[in-house]
Design brief:
Keywords: Signal. This protein is mostly helical and about 80 residues long. It has one domain. The chain contains two helices and no strands. It starts with a helix and ends with a helix.
Length: about 80
């Protein structure tokens, strides 16, 4: 009986070892894929930053928008 129990525990340990090894390989592969995606995203952001800066320079600030809105409403309020 004790021999059967010890062989079962070795089998479970072997199964757990296999499971954690497989899990480690999958996580490593997934992190490598994420690293490539991260590089692509960084390149895209760097390409888009000059365009974003141009748009931000052209748009009105919040205070300018509020002043324009108030100036439109001012004749109505009087």
């Amino acid at each position: 009986m004790a021999a059967a129990v010890s062989s079962r525990s070795r089998g479970a340990a072997g199964g757990l070892f296999f499971l954690f090894t497989l899990l480690g390989l999958v996580c490593t592969a997934a992190s490598l894929m994420d690293e490539n995606k991260l590089k692509n995203i960084k390149e895209t952001v760097q390409k888009a930053e000059p365009d974003l800066d141009k748009v931000e320079a052209q748009r009105d600030t919040n205070s300018e928008i509020i002043n324009n809105y108030v100036s439109l409403l001012d004749p109505i309020m009087r």
